[in-house]
Write the structure tokens for this entry.
Amino acid sequence: MKRRVGILTAGGDCPGLNATIRGVAKALYQRFDDDVEIIGILNGYQGLIDGDWRVMKPREFSGILTVGGTILGTKRTPFKLMRVVGDDQVDKVEAMKKNYKEMKLDCLLCLGGNGTHKTANLLAQEGLNTIGLPKTIDNDIYGTDVTFGFHTAVDIATEVIDRIHTTAGSHSRCMVVEVMGNKAGWLTLYSGIAGGADIILIPEMPYTIDNVCAAVEKRASEGKAFSIVAVAEGVFDAEEARMKKKERAAKRAEAGETTATNRIAHQIEKMTGCETRVCVPGHMQRGGSPSAYDRVLATRFGSYAAKLVAHEHYGVTVAMVNGHVTENPLEEIAGKSRLVPEGHGMLEVARSMGVCLG
Ligand code: F6P
């Protein structure tokens, strides 16, 4: 009997998804030759709910190592809605179980971030054989030192900061670069250090605008007429940090603030007199070809996932721990996230460079 392995990519895309799909597929074909069939489920869990899938041909996995995005398509199907029956009257969990059975899957590989892992765990609890693979530019999946996509995004954000540096210098401006990362500051911290940002603001460390402006003014007093601020999209100031999410949103709306980044830029210009501009690279950080680092990581993770399939070791997700690829039980990591902890070595490095952390 042929093994039937389902594979889907869910949540936001990132570079390295195709490299991981290829890694899994090649390793599976190596192990099982003709005795394996890979079933591609389209557009994440939505495809599993809708029964949107096809049997993949081995040649579909060739030539995709370097390709950005995901050949399977992806969609955000929020975990919190998985058990909610909507207007379409579809019981999503039951539909996923039914389609899994119809596809006659031995197991299902779920490539994605935190939400994807929560659903993979839910499906495992419902009796399906699931295996996770940790993807996200945010690098915030619990239990793994790194996720694929992160380092490519660091490279992209770093290039943005590099390019912003030269224009900031020419115009003697303060440039505020907004970096993605949702609630985690890893991407901003790494790209900020790699790009030599003068001020790095991350969600884990609420800032005060006085400290930010003091850093800009200190540089000016030392004859450095420009400053680079790397701001994580999810930052808030010390006052907002004491508020609940809804309260914070209401305060921002009342003040007519679109984003924290825009507010920071406005305040810097007003308080220091330094002409200030905002740069938002946005989804560019998720696009294009994966870096060599991510191609290697994706291939290592894909190869390991194939080994898990061979050993019928399910209900786990692939992880990197201290340089070794291993696995974590889904139930242990689902619902948790990995943020920049206080006292992390990278924060110490930034401080030792004289970087203002807000
Ligand atoms: O989780 C990856 C991520 O790019 C976050 O950094 C960002 O907050 C979010 O996705 C953006 O989501 P969307 O693609 O739905 O706009």
About this structure: The pocket of 6-O-phosphono-beta-D-fructofuranose is lined by residues 12, 76, 113, 136-138, 180-182, 233, 286 (CB under 6 Å). The chain has 13 helices and eleven strands.
